[in-house]
Design brief:
mainly alpha; Serine Threonine Protein Phosphatase 5, Tetratricopeptide repeat; 5-stranded mixed beta sheet; 5% strand
Length: 387
């Protein structure tokens, strides 16, 4: 038994040593199985053990462990058998590679996601000073420029990002349709990387729907930024005492209610990708118009607006057939599931109005989207029940 275990251990070690570590990107850009991240964490740890000053190895080792946390069960942010927590990796980097781009970049990257974002801006600016051309830093510099009101820096960074072909074409398509879901001069609240950065990019680089004010809900929590936004929108400043809210759901609900109560001069939308807790308490006043929901105190025929948006404004060819080799294809497929509610709405509308061709068109689109996202069985059953 001991011999068999030893042979297996040696074989596993040989296999691991024969593999080459690969760059590890954030899960908002590329998604891999948890097992892949575990393997990469081990491989990059081997590189660190060979050379403790290998800054690239430290960065990908951190990113692999972070992705394990988010793609796993959320309880174990490290690879079994290792002793480095995410903060532990940062601490060791401070001793091994202080003053490098990678250390300063990860100090901001880690701190801004687990602490007060503004406290870590000095590390971001230091990394940018060391190497302003690194692709990893662009999105954080966009955040910095947005929160500081530096419109030119924001435009420059988004332009460089676009020109570098770093942004997924599928995500840009999705965000184009998100923007087309909104009425003129709307205020659109977004949730994360993939419904915010590409939408800003389309506005700044392609001049698409520049009339819309896009507000990321996470950035809205920054006091100085929120103060500037409230002033721009001519609404009272929202003081937030985070200690009052036991859960994020409570906080999000409070913010949603504040928004719809105070923003009266412009149409208010929430991207479908937003947490529903923002509008759960007034969901009867939310109307689907595409990839976004509009708040309205009065009832209206949103299906007519939805039809016009999807059939006159949306670009949907990429949903039917995409010829690009997009490394973010899994993320694109997940984003595309947001088309299912509006498409099902139109399927039902055309079915009720005896327009079989149109109904079948949306049914086939839904099934295509569902198949790519692992939801085919669920949606097939839905349409069976409709017969």
């Amino acid at each position: 038994m001991k011999s068999a275990f030893l042979i297996f251990f040696l074989f596993s070690s040989l296999v691991l040593s024969a593999q080459q570590p690969e760059p590890v990107l954030g899960i908002a850009k590329q998604q891999k199985p948890t097992e892949w991240y575990i393997q990469q964490a081990k491989l990059w740890k081997q590189e660190i053990d060979k050379n403790n000053s290998n800054a690239k190895a430290w960065m990908y080792y951190y990113q692999a462990n972070r992705n394990i946390f988010y793609t796993g069960d959320g309880t174990q942010p490290i690879v079994a058998g290792m002793t480095d927590s995410l903060q532990g990796i940062i601490n060791k980097m401070s001793a091994a590679i202080p003053g490098t781009f990678e250390y300063n970049y990860l100090m901001n990257y880690h701190g801004s996601r687990f602490g007060n974002r503004e406290d870590y801006f000095p590390y971001l600016l230091k990394a940018y000073e060391i190497d302003p051309n690194r692709r990893e830093i662009i999105e954080d510099m966009v955040v910095y420029a947005e929160t500081k009101g530096d419109e030119q820096k924001k435009k420059d960074c988004l332009t460089n990002w676009y020109n570098g072909n770093y942004m997924s074409a599928g995500i840009l398509n999705w965000d184009y349709n998100l923007l087309q879901s909104c009425a003129p001069n709307a205020v659109l609240f977004t949730n994360g990387d993939n419904d915010t950065f590409p939408a800003w990019m389309l506005q700044e680089v392609k001049n698409v729907r520049t009339d819309i004010k896009i507000i990321n809900t996470s950035l809205f929590l920054i006091d100085d930024y929120r103060k500037a936004l409230c002033k721009e929108l001519n609404i009272p400043f929202l003081e937030i005492d985070f200690s009052k809210y036991k859960t994020d759901d409570e906080l999000n609900s409070m913010i949603g209610n504040f928004i719809v109560k105070n923003i009266k001069s412009r149409p208010v939308y929430f991207a479908e990708s937003c947490d529903q807790k923002y509008y759960k308490s007034f969901e009867d006043s939310m109307y689907l118009e595409g990839l976004a929901l509009r708040y309205s105190e009065k009832k209206y025929d949103n299906v007519a607006v939805l039809r016009n948006n999807m059939e006159q404004k949306f670009l949907l060819d990429y949903v039917k057939m995409d010829f690009r080799n997009d490394m973010a294809y899994e993320i694109v497929n997940n984003c595309n599931t947001n088309y299912i509610p509006p498409m099902v709405t139109l399927y039902n509308f055309y079915s009720e109005n005896k327009n079989k061709d149109k109904a079948d068109y949306y049914k086939n689109l839904v099934l295509n989207i569902a198949a790519k996202a692992g939801m085919q069985e669920q949606m097939t059953e839905y349409f069976k029940d409709k017969k």
